[in-house]
Design goal:
single chain; about 800 residues
Length: about 800
């Protein structure tokens, strides 16, 4: 009968399930070890107490919950005050100087941190490792009776809690998480205080049976809603976290319990050597006598009991299980379960049971499914699921999803509970832990194949499931010894292939961390993203390979990233030699230098004896020289370089530029006319504007400026200086090289409309309409266009008309009609 091993506790029932016969047999006597077991069926760490054996370092051993050894380490650091586990199953070793050493399941050192300088100086008196709203936290009580606390070992923000009466040690203390913050619950004999991070504390009103008795131990439930206190008069006080509801219980013992923990939130378990007392919140109790010392592990829904040769689990019987298996239960699930059993016997009573719950059949099926999830033995699970299947047959619109989900969860749970794996999770714990976290724990234990099969079975996305696990497997593979790099790289490539979500660069980085550089390079050959390859190759000092990979990718930013690193890392000569052989890299570097460092570009060309480009760089550099002598000196060097490059034209142009600079200096000295940054044409133009026509003519002859260009400059300069008389004289030269429309344009450029109209009579017929329009003489332009019989010119006049020129528009349209009539005739 399923309820045969149930033990009543008030109106509730408790049961003790056997999970494993431990692999370590009777070799372990727990009373001689410091024990730390992780929640959610996690591993067990044992530290042998060798204090009586001089010069012998204690042995630290990690086992699975089934007693299978995972790793061992001879402890050679400081004195350990507390062992504990983080939520991610990292082993936390807190030393007496406040240093916390963190290890993985294989006892590989991960990191360490300190709880502060004051802790180091005053030493640690006691430690609590707890679950906070941010993860796993640590609190230490120093010998100066101050508490230092971090709410997360991954976010080290140490806070100091000042407890009242710091002249004496607390008689008991623990950490409680309330309202999103962790607070210390501190007992100073019979007074109880709640201390927060701000240094504030509140004295709690608590009704002890004897007002003078000191509180010497306490336990806080996992959900932080209930508290148990043990007084020096052997009274156990049980109540809520707000200290309103309570009961007192006095066990028949004169000793302080070795452990005081909560079994879920319904009962307190007190342990004295081999006696284990279970006390309800209404003073009911029962007890067990163990054969040897045990260790209690507080879980979400019960207590895991680690003994010398077995692991058991004490829990409150789930309500749905009680509804089905309680004697004389009339619940729908109980009726359906009995109907299924009678059906297997081919008994007509099955029909009677089904008829009894025909209106509650869906509830009955749901109860059987839920009860199956809470069962630990597969045979009981099968019986309950079979009953649920039997009940489904009578439902026409039943949703099968809850049944399917439960079957999947139970199949996963039964696999991880197997002794070789040793994770004795319950369904309640799995709901709280979540499936992704369980998969992470399998990966941490190196059960890669099982983790992948679970992901495939549950049809999890590749990125969250198989791909991620394969990446972890590959990182583990590169750390294995005994295989050469080529074999490992081939095995990883064959297994991973083109699996989406797997980064070969991450695996290669892991290989680099363990000193396998050649393996890392082989792995990077499979990485499709150059942006992930290149930084790692540079980290390995393989800059040439990194540069080639960057060039092949076509990513200019990536190429520049490598080039600038090489420029800083290599001597200048070696760097130039390296990039000269790569045209793309060379061209990009030249472009970079042109914008950022012209001097460096000149050095590069000079090393290559590229005189043409060296000369170009010097010409560009000359414009940055402020002193004339320096500019001329640089230009002279540029001339020599052009000569070496056999570019006589460029050399002559540089020579003319030096000559112009000297002339400009002379002009500045004689005429007080700044013109140092002007070109030849601008200089001549400025001389004309200032009416230094003789000097302008001298420059024209010296630099052989073409006459037509000189005319353009003079016409523009005379118009700019408003020297209309001289402009008119110039227009009447014997051999004008420009048409009169040039004079019209120059006058209009400087808003001299009346001056511009003076030249219109002398404009050639084909340009006259253009000039009349430009000077605003639209009516005259229309008449000339009509005389020229040009419809195109008439259209130009029409486009130039504005709303004020209606009369002209009408005239133009009339001219166009006349022209059109003449054509038709």
């Amino acid at each position: 009968m399923a309820s045969a091993n149930w033990t009543p506790l008030g109106t509730e029932y408790y049961e003790k399930l056997e999970m494993y016969q431990l692999d370590w047999g009777d070799q372990i006597e727990l009373s001689k070890f410091t024990v730390a077991a992780a929640q959610y069926g996690g591993p067990i760490a044992l530290l042998k107490d060798d204090s009586n054996t001089p010069n012998v370092r204690p042995m630290l051993t990690v086992f699975t919950s089934a007693g299978k050894i995972l790793s061992q380490l001879r402890w050679n650091s400081g004195k350990i005050k507390k062992l504990g586990w983080s939520y991610t199953e990292e082993l936390l070793c807190v030393q007496d100087d406040g240093t916390v050493l963190v290890y993985d399941l294989s006892l590989n050192f991960l990191r360490q941190f300190s709880m502060g300088q004051e802790t180091k100086e005053t030493k640690v008196h006691d430690v609590r490792i707890f679950s906070s709203y941010k993860g796993t936290g640590i609190a230490v009580l120093t010998t100066s009776y101050r508490i230092f606390i971090v709410n997360s070992i991954d976010d080290l923000r140490i806070r100091k809690l000042e407890i009242p009466g710091a002249d004496s040690a607390p008689t008991a203390w623990d950490i409680i998480t309330m309202d999103g913050q962790s607070q210390a619950l501190v007992a100073k004999r019979n007074e109880l205080y709640l201390v927060d991070h701000g240094g504030q504390y509140q004295k709690q009103d608590i009704d002890l049976s004897q007002t003078e008795e000191a509180i010497v131990d306490m336990a806080i439930s996992i959900n932080n809603r209930y508290i148990a206190l043990f007084s020096e008069k052997q009274v156990i006080w049980i109540g809520t976290a707000d200290f309103k509801k309570k009961c007192d219980f006095k066990p028949k013992t004169s000793k302080k319990p070795t452990q005081l923990v909560w079994c879920g939130s319904g009962a307190v378990v007190a342990l004295w050597d081999k006696l284990m007392l279970v006390i309800g919140r209404d003073q009911q109790y029962f007890y067990f006598n163990n054969d040897a010392a045990v260790h209690l592990v507080e879980e979400e829904d019960g207590v895991r009991i680690v003994g010398r040769d077995s692991v058991e689990f004490l829990r409150k019987v789930p309500q749905v299980t009680e509804q089905i298996f309680k004697i004389a239960s009339m619940e729908p699930g109980a009726m359906l379960f009995e109907a299924s059993r009678e059906f297997d016997k081919q008994s007509q009573r099955a029909d009677e049971y089904i008829r009894t719950v025909k209106d509650q059949l869906e509830t009955a099926v749901s109860q059987c499914i839920q009860a199956a999830g809470h069962e630990y033995e597969p045979s009981k699970q099968r019986r309950l699921l079979k009953a649920a299947t039997f009940g489904k047959c009578f439902l026409t619109d039943y949703n099968p999803e809850p049944f399917v989900n439960m079957c999947q969860m139970l199949r996963v749970l039964n696999q991880v509970r197997q002794p070789p794996i040793g994770i004795p999770l319950t369904y309640t714990q799995l709901e709280r832990l979540t499936m992704p976290t369980l998969i992470d724990r399998l990966v941490n234990r190196k059960y890669f194949y099982l983790a992948i099969r679970i992901c495939q079975y549950l049809k999890l996305p590749e990125a969250e499931g198989a791909s991620r696990i394969l990446a972890h497997w590959a990182c583990y593979k590169v750390q294995s010894k005994g295989e050469d790099d080529e074999q490992v790289a081939r095995a990883i490539a064959d297994k991973l292939g083109d699996t989406p979500g797997v980064s070969y660069s991450d695996v290669a980085n892991k290989a680099l961390e363990v000193g396998r550089n050649d393996l890392a390079i082989r792995l990077l050959d499979n990485e499709p993203k150059a942006a992930l390859q290149v930084p790692l190759l540079m980290k390995m000092k393989r800059e040439n390979i990194a540069l080639n990979k960057a060039i092949d990718s076509g990513d200019t930013d990536l190429i520049y990233f490598v080039l600038l690193h090489l420029k800083d890392a290599l001597p200048k000569g070696e760097f130039f030699m390296a990039i000269r052989q790569l045209p793309v890299a060379y061209a990009l570097y030249i472009q970079y230098c042109r914008q950022q460092s012209p001097a460096l570009m000149e050095q590069l060309y000079d090393q290559e004896e590229n005189h043409q480009e060296v000369a170009t760089c010097k010409v560009m550099g000359s414009f940055k020289q402020e002193r004339l002598e320096d500019r001329v000196a640089v230009l002279n060097e540029a001339k020599d370089s052009f000569t070496k490059a056999k570019n006589d034209f460029a050399a002559k142009q540089v020579e003319d530029q030096m000559k112009l600079l000297r002339y400009q200096r002379l002009l500045e000295e004689e005429l007080q006319m700044p013109c140092q940054e002007l070109s030849l044409h601008e200089t001549i133009h400025k001389l004309m504007v200032t009416r230094n026509h003789k000097m302008a003519e001298q420059l024209r002859k010296e630099f052989k400026v073409p006459e037509k260009r000189y005319w353009w400059l003079r016409v523009d300069a005379l118009a700019q200086s408003a020297d209309w008389v001289e402009l008119d004289k110039f227009s009447k030269s014997k051999k004008p090289l420009l048409g009169m429309e040039a004079f019209v344009d120059a006058c209009m450029k400087y808003d001299a409309k009346m001056e511009a109209r003076k030249y219109i009579p002398r404009v050639s017929p084909e340009k006259k309409v253009y000039c009349l329009i430009k000077t605003g003489l639209l009516r005259e332009a229309a008449e000339v266009a009509f005389e020229n019989r040009s419809e195109e010119e008439l259209n130009k006049v029409l486009r130039a008309c504005s709303t004020q020129d209606r009369t002209v528009e009408d005239q133009v349209r009339a001219y166009k009609q006349q022209l059109g009539a003449a054509v038709r005739k």
